[in-house]
Write a structure and sequence with these properties.
- By secondary structure, the protein is mostly beta strands.
- The protein is built from no helices and 17 strands.
- The strands form 5 sheets. Strands 3-4-5-6 form a 4-stranded antiparallel beta sheet, with no helix packed on it. Strands 7-8-9-10 form a 4-stranded antiparallel beta sheet, with no helix packed on it. A 4-stranded antiparallel beta sheet has the order 11-12-13-14, with no helix packed on it.
- The N and C termini lie far apart (about 45 Å).
Length: about 180
């Protein structure tokens, strides 16, 4: 069975169904912040961009393995991708050109941009580390959440410089400096 994403446009009560390619599983997603485009990370490591205005798709190769998480920066200038088994963050510009590739982040699982598009956070489910990197992939800080269970999820506040990190039995909030 193949995964399917259903998008409901409430404004005109028109329902649009978006189907991944039949041989690929839909693993993660991110809305393009300035266009009516849904970007999806796929099982085989590619990213498919669906333009929901005209129904066209474009594709870019990000990895050769399962894409755990993708996220567009708020200013639409960067797409961050992390993959299973690679423990690597890759940053792309809006046209799909690679800006940087960063390794040494532990078992990278999640990625999220801050509201200013200046800091991207990466977490690892098996790792106690959350890495904060600048928009070009330079490491700013590694946060050790000091929990045996690891950092399962992370999310930046939509307007404030606050990063929520949660695990098996904790929730922590950090500022943009990782404090």
């Amino acid at each position: 069975q193949y995964s399917k994403t259903t998008i409901v446009r409430i404004k005109d009560d028109h329902r649009t169904e978006v189907h991944p390619h039949r041989d690929r599983l839909f693993c993660s997603q991110s809305w393009h912040p300035t266009r009516n485009v849904l970007s999806a990370g796929m099982e085989r490591g590619n990213v498919i961009h669906w333009d929901l205005t005209d129904g066209t798709t474009t594709q870019m190769e990000a990895f050769d393995s399962y894409l755990y998480s993708i996220d567009w920066s708020a200013d639409a200038s960067r797409l961050a991708c992390v993959s299973a088994g690679k423990n690597v963050l890759r940053l792309f510009d809006e046209d799909g050109t690679e800006i940087s590739q960063v390794s040494g982040l532990g078992a990278a699982r999640g990625v999220d941009w801050d509201s200013t598009s200046q800091i991207v956070a990466v977490n690892g489910a098996e790792s106690r580390l959350v890495s904060l990197l600048d928009r070009d992939g330079e490491l700013l800080k590694k946060i050790d959440v000091d929990e045996k269970a690891g950092a399962y999820t992370l999310q930046w506040h939509p307007t404030m410089p606050r990063l929520l990190v949660s695990g098996n039995s904790y929730v922590r909030i950090y500022d943009s400096a990782g404090e």
